[in-house]
Amino acid sequence: NAFLTILDKGQLTLGDNSISDFSNAVIFFTSNVGNTEVERTREHALGFRPEQESSQTSFAKHFKNVFRPEYRGRINKTIVFEPLNERELARIASLQLRKLERQFQEVGVGLDLQILPEALAFLVSVGKNLSEGARAMRKVIDEKIGDQIVLAMQHYDLNGKTLVIDIDNESKAGEGKMVFYDGGEAKKLRTKAGVA
After folding, report:
1. CA-CA distances (angstroms) from residue 50 to 34, 41, 45, 54, 141?
2. What distance lies between CA 13 and its chain's CA centroid?
3. Which residues contact 56 (CB under 8 A, 6 or more apart)?
4. Is the confidence at residue 184, as pLDDT, over 70?
């Protein structure tokens, strides 16, 4: 009901009787409405979908089932976003790596992270979660790369280093461990106690 008040009157009265003005606001709602339908259709190879409704039509059907008429009537525009493809996920992974570099710089560790294509492809395959979108990629990079670099920092001074990131071919199949090499010395870095 609070949203209805905002959308109708352009203001909201708070618990302390103060009024928040929304009369000049543009309000964006995000939703995963119809997401399961999108996931189902994305399972088909090469981006082809079975003959069926378009994404917009499918969304409209689910939208009507989820939102009451009084909300639907007050929404001016809906935009349907297609799920991220592998190329877009690879770009997001690269951007997340740059962000990780900046986070390390903020604590005084200047790193240059270079990821090999096989490792990037692995991150894309693991971070490809249609229901979470790009958030899943951030979690994967934090776990597979960020946390491992922190462990390596217990053994090495990494400030000013270039780290080359690859897949550890010696790890068990499907485990997907990352391995880090000092780009200047081409040596494998230890990321936990007792591992060479």
Report:
1. 16, 7, 10, 10, 33
2. 35
3. 80
4. no
Q: Which residue has the tokens 């088909």?
A: 44
Q: What is the pLDDT of residues 75-103, one digit of tens each?
A: 888 887 777 788 988 999 999 999 999 99
How is residue 50 written in tokens?
């079975």
Task: Give the number of other CB atoms < 10 A from CB of residue 41.
Answer: 17
What predicted TM-score, i.e. pTM, was given to this entire model?
A: 0.65
pLDDT digits (tens, 9 = 90+) for 8-51: 888 888 889 999 998 888 888 877 776 665 555 554 433 434 44
Confirm if 192 and 151 have CB atoms less than 8 A apart. yes
Question: What is the 3-state secondary structure of 82-132?
Answer: CCCCHHHHHHHHHHHHHHHHHHHHHCCCCEEEEECHHHHHHHHHHHCCCCC
